[in-house]
Structure to design on (253 residues):
């Protein structure tokens, strides 16, 4: 048994980010063609395109502001012009901001999280789901976070945005399920990325002590889960929120 995405095309928003790059490489290794979304980092997008094309797949770069509906629809037109159809959408992009207490957090930070966690997914659904309905096939995969369940101090804007995203995804799963479109979320823990490897911050003992597996996950762990959900192996899974965090959160029935 192996994951084969040959003949499928995947759009990854925020593909040049720490997790997005590993997702792109992993999905390309599974045979998927790629639409590499970026906002500003064209150089990194170009590097990722060249790297994944060496794996024998097609890849195109598309610049877009995922918080702007017109920009998302332009991305759709460019992506479908290059690739004809988009089978799988991975919503990975998120706006970064400085975390602080609710009393000190700027209202604009709450707005930014609403835009990138909720409206991004509304625009992506409006742009790409109609084509999936026509083809009776599709995968929508959103990157959520363990923070949605931890509700730790100083995370209110991020948690509010991602919890809203969770509700949106569950409703969308019910609305499009009859068309054989699955809608799922991956919720990473505090994940090791290239930034940690470069900065020597791989070990975080204060965090690891509370994780049942007593370690942090790797970016590859997140990418592996995305690849599984993108594949036919997960064809009967929808509406799921899947933690990839070593048991740091455990959703209850």
């Amino acid at each position: 048994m192996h994951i084969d995405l040959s003949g499928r095309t995947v759009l990854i928003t925020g593909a040049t980010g720490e997790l997005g790059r590993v997702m792109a490489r992993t999905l390309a290794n599974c045979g998927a063609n790629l639409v590499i979304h970026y906002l500003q980092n064209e150089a990194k997008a170009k590097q990722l395109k060249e790297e994944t094309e060496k794996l024998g797949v097609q890849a195109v770069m598309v610049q877009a502001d995922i918080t702007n509906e017109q920009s998302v629809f332009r991305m759709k037109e460019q992506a479908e012009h290059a690739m004809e159809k988009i089978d799988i959408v991975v919503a990975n992009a998120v706006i970064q901001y400085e975390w602080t207490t609710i009393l000190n957090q700027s209202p604009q930070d709450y707005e930014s999280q609403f835009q990138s966690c909720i409206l991004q997914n509304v625009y992506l659904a409006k742009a790409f789901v109609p084509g999936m309905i026509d083809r009776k096939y599709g995968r929508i995969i959103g990157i959520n976070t363990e923070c949605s369940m931890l509700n730790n101090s100083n995370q209110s804007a991020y948690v509010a945005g991602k919890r809203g995203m969770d509700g949106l995804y569950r409703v969308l799963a019910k609305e499009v399920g009859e068309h054989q479109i699955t809608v799922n979320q991956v919720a990473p823990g505090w994940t090791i990325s290239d930034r940690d490897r470069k900065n020597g911050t791989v070990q975080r003992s204060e965090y690891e002590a509370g994780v049942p597996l007593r370690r942090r996950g790797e970016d590859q762990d997140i990418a592996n889960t995305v690849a599984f959900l993108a594949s036919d192996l997960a064809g009967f899974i929808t509406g799921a929120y899947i933690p990839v965090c070593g048991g740091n959160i455990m959703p209850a029935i």
